[in-house]
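FORM 7B: Structural annotation worksheet

SECTION A. Query
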Amino acid sequence: MATAGSHQPNRPKAPNQGTTTGRKPLQVMRINRRDEEQERLQREAAEARAAANAAAEKARKLEEAAGLTAPTRPAAASTTSKADEDRFDLGEMEGMSMADLLGAEDQAKSGKPAKPLNSSMSRSVDDFDFDEEAFLAALDENAPVGTTGEVIKGKVIALESDGVYVDIGGKAPGFMPKSEAGLGVITNFRERFPKGMDVEVLVTREQNADGMVTISCRALALRQSWERVKDMEKKGQVVQVIVNGFNRGGVTCDLEGLRGFIPRSQLQDGENHQELVGKTLGVAFLEVNPETRKLVLSEKRAALAARFLELEVGQLVEGQVASVKPYGLFIDLGGVSGLLHQSMITNGNLRSIREVFDQGERVKALVTELDPSRGRIGLNTALLEGPPGELLVEKDKVMAEASDRAVRAQNTLKQREQQAG
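SECTION B. Predicted structure
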């Protein structure tokens, strides 16, 4: 025997010996895994077979419900499989829908004769319960609410820091950004749009994927302002505005919430136009264009329009010759000019316009034409003459007796109008 501490020679260990527990050889592990895989496949095959049997049983019950076959007991599951053609007679069911199959049972309950089951016959709309009014109502209920440019009414339902939510009758509320809440600056947003308030808005963007549309009070107010201004222009109205700014080309003002512009050439005092800020002016319309947002006004045309309201055909007016042209004289009638054409000066043989009137002279004449749209006033002194050419020899006498002669001339004008009419 070897004593403690004596050296023992190393001996080879037996194949089945070791310090750890016994480990299966690699070949045994592979065989076990193959067995497990086969068991799994068999289990899945059994489940699939059971599902197929269940589907077959369901199809059999549907056939019985449709009256295709007589009720039978469910066949016991067997390991032997049959083809579908042997199990079921599907010839009469070819081309039929589930509604066709269920319809046979409905007809049996109602007592009506069942229709023959064949692939050539299809059911009409009359065979189904169809409510046209309910269908149309459903379409209307789900129709999009709010198209671009449409004016709709709604009720404020919520306020956020960036805008207002309004119930407009759609599947989602309309949203109005804070910047579109109205014309001008709104200091107290919650006071302006309390919850439950009825509002009228303009749709500026159609619904998005969530069904929400973008709406605006400001856009609606601007549209209504343009409509009012267009109506004023059509009627030829003179309106009062307050000048709130100026630039090199003229002055600006506010009219019905719109920015208007008055060019310097259309001001009575265009040289000192910057001093007009804060003053009230009477203006008429030169251009009103909602598409380009151009609103151009004129103080001079307003004076002309006001003067036109004071004039009528046949009226005797007095003014000063402002300028002499080859075709006639322009007479200043106090803010507006009338044209005394050379053919209307005298019935005599006129060699030169200055032969009768010269620049700066006072002239009395009859109004024979008024055209407010073009700002034109036609004058006539020949109607004040007695014998033709009287103005050439006795101009002072004709001017002195102009009032009496005007009565006779007015009768002549009325006779001409009657003959022309």
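SECTION C. Observations
The mean pLDDT is 78. The radius of gyration is 51 Å.

SECTION D. Sign-off
Analyst initials: ____
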